[in-house]
Specification:
The complex is a heterodimer. Chain A is mainly α. Chain A contains 7 helices and no strands. The longest helix of chain A is centred in the middle third of the chain and has 32 residues. By secondary structure, chain B is of the alpha+beta class. Helix content of chain B is 61%, strand content 8%. The chains are: A mainly alpha, B alpha+beta.
Chain lengths: 191, 485
């Protein structure tokens, strides 16, 4: 077996031990600090080993995939060993919750807020971010890459705000401000 | 006394996060589910292309002279010169050479002669469904990109809604009702998070790049969107008037083989052939990298002019150059594709179970929604059934293109509506599972009958065998369930 193959086998072993330690840590719930640190450290070391054998970017990605597959195997084993329990308590707890209803107009407005309006706000904020980064003399491809990632992340965050905040006025104001303030910045910067 | 390191969660925060999670999931669950299924299948689009045309000429490599001869023959055969002439080179998962112009594509034999026309209607239908949801290009890309952003929103709100996300990371309870479904949803969501977050993000980046470029161009480049991308991917030189003999094609290919033997040439592009401004670009893959490759430019005489820098340029170029491969899983051979299959199926399960959990919770509250619940089951099992039906129709040659689009979307509306009228989840699920299995078997039988000469070839066997296994598992599973019931 070549050195690379040996290192990959060792990386798989480290990932498996790391996940086993995390499982133990989360089962006992208290005084589990060393298990948590050990678990995450082993998974991190396994990813570093993959990066060493297969290139920094591709190897790290392979390491993450391997760790996820191993974790799924652990969860699958847990599912096979699981006992039947816990149903009645949850059912009773849910049954006490009051039904939620909201007017149609409000639901349509919330839909518009988390969809097109949040999208336009994220677009405006991302464009303003690009303009600001260029103003700060950030290299152009770095600025472009930053906003390529920022746009969907901002849209996602604003969509969560639209669903999370209960007060309609507050959520509307937050999302509209997130779009209008960057737009003002772009306009002022252009003039 | 032992102490916990876990912070106390606020029940109000959890309730508000579940609300945010439900709003997005219910509004867009069906489209996200269709994207998840088609995305999972699209990982194998090259295998599916081979399967649709199993008799096409295959080769591990083609010589520069043979590739140039085939490209020249196809170019010369067209009455109106194409603006771009492409050569797709053989790759391990698609060992074929294809010459493409603006309007058509032909296979090349290893000796440089031109073989039959490339034609994979169902794989194209599948890719168009995943890329654009069959909408016009820019609109479709933007809608799909937006759905990627909403999948990210679901991940964020899902994590916020789960205060014991780490403590419960290995919990899996069995029993009737909502608990096992919740555990399935939560465990798969948490452990496949690196996949579904990176996939949603890269999908959103790919889909939303056009409108972001438009906005950035308006703010900083006087509306010139090509100027936005050129620092990363290189710019296209302005066309130069005047005629010229066809550019040197074999020269640049031989240069790449000789100078960069460690790279895999995947793609050749001749821009503006037979004009004074014609020039060529070669895309070559770098083995141990996530990038899709780098662009290597040559002039019309075949002189090397340098690479764009996706492999060794700025960090921004290298990150953006990795987005496509990270999304489609074609960067690590079959093992990575199989991992993406597992993660893709997990994402489909997460989406399907998420909406089912909502309906079960409503039922527990005394607010049962049997029609909506059955309609959702119609989407969950109707989507694979309709994909199997369109595959069958494409294989037997009944329809393709818009016909397949009409069958899929019309069928989905029909199944959803019928399921809502019937309002019975279990029979809907059962009949649609039978439909998936039966249609898959019918498709495989038809494919074998139509391609007897290539039925056991490496182009046919992997997909056919997988299809038989999937159909068998579905039908045997139903039989076992009937006995249990």
């Amino acid at each position: 077996m070549s050195d690379e193959a040996l290192l990959r086998v060792a990386a798989l072993g480290m990932a498996a031990c790391g996940i086993a330690l995390l499982q133990a840590a989360w089962r006992i719930k208290a005084n589990n600090g060393w298990r948590l640190i050990g678990g995450w450290s082993l998974i991190g070391a396994s990813i570093v080993a993959w990066a060493y054998t297969s290139g920094a970017d591709k190897g790290a990605a392979l390491g993450i995939i391997a760790a996820v597959i191993i974790a799924l195997l652990f969860v699958g084993r847990q599912a096979l060993l699981a006992e039947r329990r816990g149903e009645r308590q949850r059912r009773e707890r849910v049954a006490k919750a009051p039904p939620e209803r909201s007017p149609l107009a409000r639901r349509i407005w919330v839909g518009a807020l988390l969809g097109p309006i949040a999208g336009l706000a994220a677009l405006s904020a991302s464009t303003a971010l690009y303009v600001a980064l260029i103003d700060l003399s950030v290299e152009q491809t770095a600025a472009l890459t930053t906003v390529f990632f920022a746009f969907p992340l901002l849209w996602a965050a604003l969509a969560v705000v639209a669903g999370y905040v209960r007060h309609l006025g507050r959520k509307s104001a937050t999302i509209l401000a997130a779009g209008l303030l960057p737009l003002m910045y772009i306009f002022l910067n252009a003039n | 006394m032992s102490t916990s390191i876990w912070p106390k969660s606020s029940s109000e925060r959890v309730a508000k996060s579940i609300n945010a999670h439900s709003v997005v999931g219910l509004a867009l669950g069906a489209l996200l589910y269709i994207l998840a299924i088609t995305g999972t299948l699209s990982v194998f689009n090259r295998e599916l292309q081979r399967w649709e045309q199993p008799s096409a000429p295959e080769m591990a490599a083609i010589s520069p002279d043979a590739a140039a001869a085939a490209a020249t023959a196809v170019f010369s055969s067209e009455p109106t010169p194409t603006t771009h002439l492409y050569i797709n080179f053989p790759q391990p998962d698609l060992p074929r050479t294809v010459i493409t112009t603006d309007t058509q594509a032909f296979f090349a034999n290893a000796d440089g002669t031109v073989a039959g026309r490339e034609h994979f209607p169902w794989t194209q239908f599948l890719l168009d469904l995943h890329y654009y949801l069959h909408l016009p290009t820019i609109l479709g890309l933007t809608v799909v990109g937006a759905l990627g952003a909403f999948l990210l929103a679901l991940s964020i709100s899902g994590f916020m809604a789960h205060p014991r996300i780490f403590r419960d990371a290995f919990t899996f309870r069995r029993g009737a009702g909502r608990v096992p479904l919740l555990d399935l949803h939560n465990r798969l969501s948490v452990w496949t998070a690196p996949f579904h977050i990176s996939n949603a993000l890269t999908g959103a980046i790919l889909g939303l790049a056009s409108i972001l470029a438009f906005a950035v161009a308006s703010a900083s480049f006087g509306g010139d969107t090509t100027a936005v991308f050129s620092p990363i991917f290189g710019g296209e030189p302005a066309p130069v008037e005047g005629d010229a003999p066809l550019a040197n094609i074999a020269g640049p290919l031989a240069y790449m083989n000789d100078t960069y033997p460690e790279l895999l040439t995947t793609y050749f592009i001749l821009h503006d052939p037979t004009t004074a401004g014609q020039h060529t670009t070669i895309i070559a893959e770098h083995g141990d990298r996530l990038i899709f490759g780098d662009y290597y430019n040559f002039d019309a005489a075949g002189n090397y002019e340098g690479n764009i820098g996706i492999s060794d340029g700025t960090l921004g170029q290298q990150i953006v150059g990795s987005v496509y491969n990270v999304h489609f899983g074609n960067w690590g051979g079959l093992p990575v594709k199989l991992a993406y299959l597992v993660f893709g199926l997990a994402l489909c399960t997460v989406i399907a179970s998420g909406v089912r959990i909502y309906f079960q919770r409503q039922r527990d509250r005394g607010l049962a929604m049997p029609r909506w619940e059955a309609a959702w089951e119609g989407v969950v099992w109707g989507t694979p059934a309709l994909l199997a039906l369109t595959l069958f129709l494409a294989v037997i040659g009944v329809t393709e293109g818009l016909g397949l689009v009409a069958v899929f979307w019309g069928g989905l509306v029909g199944i959803g509506t019928t399921a809502a009228i019937v309002a019975a989840v279990l029979p809907i699920r059962r009949y649609l599972k039978i439909a998936v299995g039966a249609l898959l078997l019918a498709t495989l039988l038809s494919h074998t009958a139509l391609h007897t000469d290539a039925a056991v070839s490496t182009a046919s066997m992997p997909v056919s065998a997988t299809g038989v296994v999937v159909a068998g598992l579905l039908l045997l599973g139903l039989r076992r369930q009937s006995r249990t019931d």
